[in-house]
Amino acid sequence: MRFEDKVVCVTGAGRGIGFALAEAFAKEGAKVVILEVNEETGAAAAEKLGATFIALDVTDTRAVQQTVAAIVEQFERIDIWINNAGIAHKALAVDLTPEQWDQDIAVMLSGPFYCAQQVGRVMIEQGSGNVINIASVNGLFAQKARGPYCSAKAGLIMLTKVLASEWAEHGVRVNAVAPGVIMTDLVQESFDSGLMSPQKINSRTPMGRPGEMNEVVESVLFLANDDEASFMTGEVLRVDGGWTAYHLFYPFEEAF
Ligand SMILES: NC(=O)c1ccc[n+]([C@@H]2O[C@H](COP(=O)([O-])OP(=O)(O)OC[C@H]3O[C@@H](n4cnc5c(N)ncnc54)[C@H](O)[C@@H]3O)[C@@H](O)[C@H]2O)c1
């Protein structure tokens, strides 16, 4: 019960990594708030975990403001906020529509900023709190056909460092996790449909396999723990099986 009675909010927690995070914090005794644009999956996730569900589109600044106010009204504080919601458009830069670009940036860079800004004000007043941003190895390494995704995640990593610098003196830590390929339903579907090849992913990853959701979850639990990660802020923790440590020296066929 490492997070007993802590108020933990997770965006995009209706499924995937966000749900796994919500589940883990609930098991550790936290009061979990599931924030999800998909009302069906969000409500089902909350019911399964005995958590609170609030429908939220993180790109809607007004809704973010109202949601943070409603959480504070109900729980009187916010201890941990995880910016996890994500989408990804796959298209070469020359083929991208402005809408695709705008949507990726809105969900994975502007949305986390809107949330962090509102939550940061609450945490600064409390004199404590943790913001954790789920970035990606794609925020550190380029990938063809992922221009807006890579740009949003790179921006999110830099935003993490700026907020960490601004809020350290107020007792608020801000960190990021950069996962490599993680086995989620979405990745499994990509394997099944042939969009992604498990063999190519495995051969590109020094550890020879994709990551599991619990491996991302454990890194977030660590960063969120004020005893274990007390002197860590502005960190980008890579959970990638060695993906970004490894530089291929021969041409590699695209994995995606
Ligand atoms: N799965 C991977 O291999 C991997 C690797 C690196 C980083 N990530 C990152 O981890 C996070 C979660 O990924 P996942 O694989 O679990 O994805 P997922 O698609 O399974 O889950 C994302 C969730 O975010 C929600 N969402 C989308 N737009 C939203 C919005 N505007 N407001 C609120 N919620 C919204 C979706 O409805 C969905 O429930 C993402 O930020 C993703 O970029 C995933």
**Which strand order does the major sheet show?**
3-2-1-4-5-6-7
Structural class call reads: alpha/beta
CATH architecture: 3-Layer(aba) Sandwich
- What kind of sheet is the major sheet? 7 strands, parallel
For the record, the count of structural domains works out to: 1
- The name of the CATH topology is Rossmann fold
Number of DSSP helices? 8
Rg, nearest Å: 18 Å
The residue fraction in helices comes out at 40-55%
Outline type: globular
Distance between the termini: 40 Å
Describe this entry's structure for a reader:
The chain has helices at residues 16-27, 39-49, 61-75, 98-126, 147-167, 185-193, 198-204, 213-224, and strands spanning 7-11, 31-36, 52-55, 80-83, 129-134, 172-179, 236-239. With 256 residues, the chain is of the alpha/beta class. It has one domain: Rossmann fold (3-Layer(aba) Sandwich), CATH 3.40.50.720. A seven-stranded parallel β-sheet has the order 3-2-1-4-5-6-7, with helices on both faces. Helix 5 (147-167) links the parallel strand 5 and strand 6 (172-179). It is globular and about 55 Å long. Nicotinamide-adenine-dinucleotide binds next to helix 1, helix 4 and helix 6.
Secondary structure layout plus pairing:
Elements: E1 7-11, H1 16-27, E2 31-36, H2 39-49, E3 52-55, H3 61-75, E4 80-83, H4 98-126, E5 129-134, H5 147-167, E6 172-179, H6 185-193, H7 198-204, H8 213-224, E7 236-239
Parallel strand pairs: 1-2, 1-4, 2-3, 4-5, 5-6, 6-7
Helix pairs in contact: 1-8, 3-4, 4-5
Bound molecules: nicotinamide-adenine-dinucleotide.
